[in-house]
Amino acid sequence: MTAPIVDKATVAQVLRDISLLLQLQGENGFRSRAYDMGADRILGLTQDLGAIVSEGRLESLPGIGPALAEKITELVTTGRMTYFEDLRAKFPPGLLELMKLPDIGPRKVAALWKELGIGSVEELEAACREGRVRELKGFGAKSEAKILEGIALFRRARGERKLLGDVLPLAEALLERVRASPGVVRASLGGSVRRRAETVSDVDIIASAPDAGPVLDALATSPGVATVLGKGDSKCSVRMEAGDLQVDLRVLPDEDFATALHHFTGSKAHHIRLRNLGHERGMKISEWGVHRDDGTKLPVKDEAALYALLDMQFVPPELREDNGEVEAARAGTLPTDLVTMEDVQGAVHAHTTWSDGRNSLEEMARAAKAMGLKYLTITEHSEAAIYAGGLKVDALKRQWEEIDRVNEAVPGMRLLKGIEVDILESGALDYDDQVLEQLEVVIASIHVRHSMDEEQMTRRVLTALDNPHLHILGHPTGRLLQSREPYPLRMEDVLEHAAKRGVAVEINGKPARLDIKAEYVRKATQLGVKLVVSCDAHRQEDLGNLSYAVATARRGWARKQDVLNTLPAERFLAALRAGR
Ligand code: DGT
Ligand code: CA
Ligand code: ZN
Questions:
Q1: Apex CA 230: angle with CA 229 and CA 233, to 5°?
Q2: Would the CB of 250 count as within 6 Å of ligand 1?
Q3: Is residue 195 scored above 90 in pLDDT?
Q4: Over the stretch 480-491, which tens digit does the pLDDT of each residue have?
């Protein structure tokens, strides 16, 4: 799959910005609202935006008239929207950012700008400190203090790390834009995004081209850029409006690409190890390349060549954390068959409109097929999960009939009959054995009663693993990144017991879960536990979560043979049963 130049989120962001700018300009609310509605419409699309545009179907969407359709088409096909660029050029570049502050809307920004010439957060901060804002009608000394508080809050939020899943689509769209700009020979993401860390602080892009200028310009003029933070001969940094994300682009001559890419991929800890190994061999490794002690520069055509200079195996970016990969690569024992997205034949863990999902069985089947998958396990919530529309047994059986119908209607795709059954407080599963034994795929997870102590919680999960109908333990630690701690659980005991009982363990690919995490993946494979990579999809777009599960598997050194859904459907089912 190649990412389009401009994704839905960016289109929506541009439309919202236009709405704000029109309001700043004092236009009637009617015009600006049309852009806001257009933004909602685009975000709500379940189909591929690129396809809608290329087939000329934009205008047939309710709320999108011919003029708007034309502007969106320009943006999606060329990466630019002249109307937006012209409109934006009438205002200082930092003005849109001002609108992100708490309690500051278009009317206040318009007053600050027109009366005091304030066009950025920094200027507003200075004006508040100097007591100039209180002079304005509708503002006072109190509002100055409140604005300063708001600015502090805004800056703190900006400093927080972001979920990889919120950043990667945007990063890939920008990378495509860089790739498509004049003269580019090679381009890649770097940093923690390339290493597929769970959370990231910014986006690093590295490109090679004979002339850096036009490439740097391409980033600086990208739709969705709030501010150009700095631009030099070989580097450009911008802040995107979406998520306040900073993006750093570096452009070098192609002969320096590999060593620069390696440097800016990190991690720092991995680098330090390599630098020391280089030193022992009389080589200096730096962001500028590899030099002999006498100053001569060694040609390095790609990253593999760099590792070869150090007599090491190539280390995939996901493994570059100084977690033993340096030793293994030197000894030649680093796994060379880490699981890849291409290895995955079927997706595990999907919800539909039968419980709390947004798409029908047939829509999910078609979307999975479009991704090149061969099967999808349908695993709705069970009866106890009332909040999530859990299924009573008779509804479950009616679903099987619809699954049979869809399987006939969508050749080449097989929906497997499964369940995500709740693990009750006692460790019992939420359906009787007679129901569970009729299902092809049984995932069991905890959704309620998280506040047990470690002993109780561990016992609960171990008891669940004893159920002979259970195939997969779902999101085992229950963590939600940046919002919920894992439940207290002796994971080592859980993984050992899963190995003993032949239960597979889920790597849940939902970006806020990534559960189990990479460290436990590694432990699991060492104990001989089989894994599944899952999407935990609640709508068809979520099927893409599989790639985050695969990334987590790779970060945990999992190979293809460790992951059961790399098998074709029949063998996958046989492996689930054989474990028990
Ligand atoms: P992040 O941005 O906090 O999610 O994590 P990274 O790893 O992307 O870190 P970042 O963006 O500060 O720098 C990108 C890479 O550049 C980093 O992984 C390694 C390299 N790098 C940056 N600063 C240093 C440094 O002081 N020493 C060394 N050896 N490498 C550095
Ligand atoms: Ca970074
Ligand atoms: Zn769940």
A1: 160
A2: no
A3: yes
A4: 998 788 999 999
